[in-house]
Amino acid sequence: MELYRDEALLAVHKPAGLLVHRSPIDKHETEFALQYARSLNGGQHVYPLHRLDRPTSGVLVFARDPEVARTLGLNMMAGEVEKQYLAVVRGWPAASGVIDYPLRDEPEDRRRKHEEQAVRDALTHYRTLATTTLDVAIEKYPTSRYALVELEPKTGRKHQLRRHMKHVSHPIIGDANHGRGRHNRYFAERFGEGRLMLAATRIKLPHPETGEALVISAPLEESFRRVLSIFPDLSALEGPTT
User: Which of 31, 36, 50, 155 is 20–30 Å from 16 (CA)?
Assistant: First the structure.
């Protein structure tokens, strides 16, 4: 789904489960968001400005020429690009907070995971938008608590949001690597499919030609919205789906 287009930029909605580009980990895959964006660009090359993990849905921005890609790459390094995500997590986090927790690099090639990797600063801001309690006993308690949170990564480490939420004991629902299996299975069984409950909903960046702030938003997929039915009142999130 195309979200935005001008002479410099092209933004699309990446569905959950789609790779951004070819990966040595998933050599058998043949469909990528990069291919889709290239087809929208008349078959011409496009340059991804950032990445989304395969199970994450949401807004993905491409430059339409290499000079724009370089300019926005510098903007990102300078902290001038803002990203927002929504996530459903286990438990009730504080109303707001900052997660300042360095992360060790995760190599693309799993065969190198035992090699010594660099540790880099990682910073995430979060805000709790809604909470709920379900009358289901998934672990040792008779009820189970969940929250909808807004996440703003201030750095761009691999799997940063998923790893940071695990670090504060509020793992994202559907996260097979950093989450809790019992909760993931409950949501998969209740809603008929399992997915990572993480969506990139908004990006704000200086336009490479005018310097003015450009905000691009993405609607939530229907699979994400179905899970939000566990929260009694989310009228602020009403809008189109993909």
Answer: 155
CA pair distance 178, 100, nearest whole angstrom: 18
Range of the domain at 22: 2-231
User: For residue 173, how many other CB atoms are within 10 A of its CB?
Assistant: 24
In a domain, 241, yes or no: no
Which residues make beta-bridge pairs with 86?
150, 199
Half-sphere CA count of 167, side-chain side, radius 13 A:
16
Q: What's the predicted TM-score (pTM) here?
A: 0.90
| CA pair distance 134, 138, nearest whole angstrom | 10
Q: Which tens digit of pLDDT belongs to each residue from 31-60?
A: 678 888 989 988 999 999 998 999 999 999
Domain membership flag for residue 237: no
Q: Is 53 a catalytic residue?
A: yes
Nearest residue to 201 (alpha-carbon basis) of 142, 141, 161: 161
Distance, CA of 52 to CA of 54 (rounded, Å): 6
Q: Number of structural domains, the chain?
A: 1
Q: Which amino acid is at 29?
A: E
Residue 73 maps to which CATH number? 3.30.2350.10
Nearest alpha carbon to residue 186 among 144, 220, 234: 144
